[in-house]
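Hi U.,

Before I forget, here's the chain from the pilot set. I'm dumping it here mostly so it's searchable later in email.
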Amino acid sequence: MKLSNRILILSAIAVLIALPVSLSAQWNKKPYTEWSEKDARKLLENSPWAQTQVFSDTSNEFKTGLARGALGAGDNSSGDYSAHSLNIRMRLLSAKPVRQAFARIVALMQKGQMTPQLDAQLKAFATQDFPDFIIISLDCDAKESKSEFREFKSLMDNRTTADLKTNTYITGKGGERVYIEAYQPPKNDNLGAKLIFPRLVNGEPFITANSDEIHFYSEFSTKYVLNMRYKVRDMTADGKLEY
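Structure:
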């Protein structure tokens, strides 16, 4: 299936949710159709496939790090972040567990009113494969940093592939860089912006079970430099490496 058709499927489902703080979950112990809403939201914030980078305005300038409590110790060893912080969510949307979490939340929101058409759309969204692409979705939320929230939302709306093509990449085994192939601004689907990378190098996956990590890096702007690592050993679901 062509990339445009796959993204069309992603965008066909309006996920009308707002993500709260991280919560404990059992998503890795049962089928996604049995996840609670808390399980699904946990996966979308703090899991092998979804992580959060915090930009915290503590002294008239942003300090960046991982969210402590949600993700463990980040650059701020004290963990005492100001309420004035921007949470940037980076999710491997091409991994089934991420899409299953979105689909599960939509299903739960239907409260028994699921239509056959929506049910089929959700199943297709949650289970399709991406043999040619790795897709990272980008979104943000903030409790108090409204100006930074608006600033980052505007950046996501206005970035282009040309803006990012020389400074946005993922690395696999041996530190080999694979640069972004396409950037899509947020659509009316609540999945965020989509950063699309090739999955294959010389006809072979450059991320395998033998890779240590996926390292995502993007100079999204001079202010917002995104830097996140995903541990490959933890990214197995239903017996298959998912990314």
